[in-house]
Amino acid sequence: MDKYAEAGVDTAAGDRAVELMKAAVAKTHTAGVIGGVGGFAGLFDVSFLKEYERPLLATSTDGVGTKVAIAQAIDKHDTIGQDLVGMVVDDIIVVGAKPLFMTDYIACGKVVPERIADIVRGIAEACSATGTALVGGETAEHPGLLGPDDYDVAGAAVGVVEADQALGAERVRDGDVVVAMASSGLHSNGYSLVRHILSQHGIRYTDHSDDLGGMVGEVLLEPTRLYTAPLAAMLDERPGAIHALSHVTGGGIAANLARVLPQGAWTEVDRASWSPASVFRVLADWGGMALGDAEGTWNLGIGMFAIVAADAADWVVAESTRRGIPAWVAGSVSTSARDLTGFEQGAKGVDGGAVRLVGAYSG
Which of 58, 81, 210, 298 has the fewest CB neighbours in a 10 Å radius? Predict the structure, then answer.
């Protein structure tokens, strides 16, 4: 008997999982990918960087967090991959970089080939949608550390941007307009709070909720919206229109926006400019919270902010909407002196600008 298998590691199952995912991964491979699936390292030809004046590489790494617990609870694993790509690759576009390639890592208690293939297929499909080559990955079986049905996912990506086209706080100017781009739902943040609320009320993921409009778990697994392709197209079509981008992830609305404002700049985001989707309202109600109490945890309907030149605001709103992502003007940037009491000022080690939400939500 294979002693490794006796210890709980099934290498044959790992090989079967690779066979099931190979076709999906291969579809992401651009002309830059050297070799196929299964190498010790992925190779990517970057000869084209010679055409850049000063190429800057951008990199990002992330996971999906406790959202995977819901996927495991209802045995639905084909959307988690898109969540991973959204969390990783959409951080690359924030600096104006085009994604080049990505790798993934899946740790599990037991390799179930079909389950692993579902996860990777979701990653591959989202990579294709964002123009990112999936050049490698690893599935690690950890019996005794993780339960047979437990897993976690993580990934990393690399992109490139010309130095003089990089986006960031240094480009933001007084009078710039803050454009909000709609989320598809909770995306991949704040699920520990979601799970706590459901646990307190004895609500199971398999329960049907008229308020949510479906099975609780399925509604909560709505995949993260992908912003990279529409934003990359807009950056190409009208260079200089977009000055900075903010991906609304952990930390909520104000904190993430403050990270991409320069020191001395401030903005007030008008709550009346949008109406948070029912999933946020229902969860807040179940948790005995006002929507405002969740602004530092959930995105409440905004997945990305674009800070744009005032004369480009209408164009950005129209282009984003045309490309499938509803967008609207949510505020403007000012550098005038004022009392910033009550503003969120910087976050995650960044001494950025100041942001606060004002007014009441629409609807």
Answer: 210
